[in-house]
């Protein structure tokens, strides 16, 4: 009887130990799988004296209000080689993310996982960011989620910055990642309006008489090429992602 009781006690102890280990493992999994709050800062780091046009005119580099979206597979706002949606056209030509926002809502994308950034840090109201200014926004994401964002190159006809692929927010073990992701953003041509020289074109947002007034191009979304200025992203803006633990 004593042996039987001893074995029963040992069995209970082993079971409790196993339960403790399992609970610990589950706790670790929950910790690794919990949602993490992230802050994104989009900062205009271009020269205060501006950029120089072919005729010597100086113009300031600026980024427009934009949109961000987070999803498990990433959120595709456009596809290279295809015609831009009305939402992408409005963002690329006029720096207006509202149509893209409505398209995400119509598609049933979770409201907590997308939003518009349109007010410079410290500013009283919406507007573009010139040299020295920045946008900041926060969101919460769980492991395996990816970030995409889009903002217009403000001194262009229909150029916009967006990642070539959604940006991974977590590592293979579920740890949140952060740092400078500027190199992940590509300058895209929406193919909706005929291009003019950056910074001085009369049909570009700062100078056009009304939204959507430039000559129609009827092209497709593609990487912006052919102008050396297009490759100078690191001199113009910086995008950083910071996990807020």
The proportion of strand residues reads 25-35%
| Helix and strand element order | HEEEEHHEEEEEEEEHE
Q: Per the principal axes of the C-alpha atoms, what is the gross shape?
A: globular
Mean pLDDT: 87
Q: pLDDT under 50 segments (min length 5)? A: 1-32
> What does the largest sheet look like?
7 strands, antiparallel
Termini distance? 55 Å
Strand tally: 13
Give a brief description.
The chain is of the alpha+beta class.
Q: What are the main properties of this structure?
A:
single chain; 245 residues; alpha+beta; 7-stranded antiparallel β-sheet; 4-stranded antiparallel β-sheet; disordered N terminus
Blueprint (SSEs and pairs):
Elements: H1 2-33, E1 36-44, E2 51-52, E3 58-59, E4 63-71, H2 86-94, H3 98-106, E5 114-117, E6 134-141, E7 146-153, E8 159-163, E9 167-168, E10 179-180, E11 185-189, E12 222-223, H4 233-236, E13 237-244
Antiparallel strand pairs: 1-6, 1-13, 2-3, 4-5, 4-7, 7-8, 7-9, 8-11, 10-13, 11-12
Helix pairs in contact: 2-3
Could you explain how this protein is built, in words?
This protein is α+β, with helices and mostly antiparallel strands and 245 residues long. Helices cover 22% and strands 27% of the residues. The strands form 3 sheets. Strands 4, 5, 7, 8, 9, 11 and 12 form a 7-stranded antiparallel β-sheet that branches. A 4-stranded antiparallel β-sheet has the order 6-1-13-10. A hairpin with a 5-residue loop joins strand 7 and strand 8.
């Amino acid at each position: 009887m004593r042996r039987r009781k001893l074995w029963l006690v040992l069995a209970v102890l082993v079971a409790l130990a196993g339960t403790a280990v399992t609970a610990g493992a589950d706790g670790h999994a929950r910790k690794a799988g919990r949602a993490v709050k992230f802050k994104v800062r989009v900062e205009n780091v271009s020269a205060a004296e501006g950029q120089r046009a072919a005729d010597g005119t100086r113009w300031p580099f600026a980024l427009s209000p934009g949109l961000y979206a987070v999803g498990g597979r990433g959120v595709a706002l456009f596809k290279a080689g295809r015609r831009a949606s009305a939402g992408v056209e409005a963002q690329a030509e006029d720096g207006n993310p509202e149509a893209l926002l409505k398209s995400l809502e119509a598609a049933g994308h979770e409201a907590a996982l997308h939003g518009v950034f349109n007010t410079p840090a410290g500013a009283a109201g919406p507007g573009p960011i010139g040299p020295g200014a920045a946008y900041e926004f926060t969101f919460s994401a769980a492991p395996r989620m990816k970030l995409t964002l889009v903002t217009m190159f403000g001194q262009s006809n229909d150029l916009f910055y967006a990642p070539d692929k959604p940006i991974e927010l977590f590592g293979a073990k579920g740890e949140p990642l952060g740092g400078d992701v500027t190199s992940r953003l590509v300058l895209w041509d929406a193919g909706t309006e005929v291009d003019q020289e950056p910074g001085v074109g009369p049909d570009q947002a700062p100078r056009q008489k009304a939204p959507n007034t430039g000559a129609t191009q009827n092209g497709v979304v593609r990487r912006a090429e052919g102008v050396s200025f297009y490759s100078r992203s690191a001199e113009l803006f910086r995008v950083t992602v910071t996990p807020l633990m």
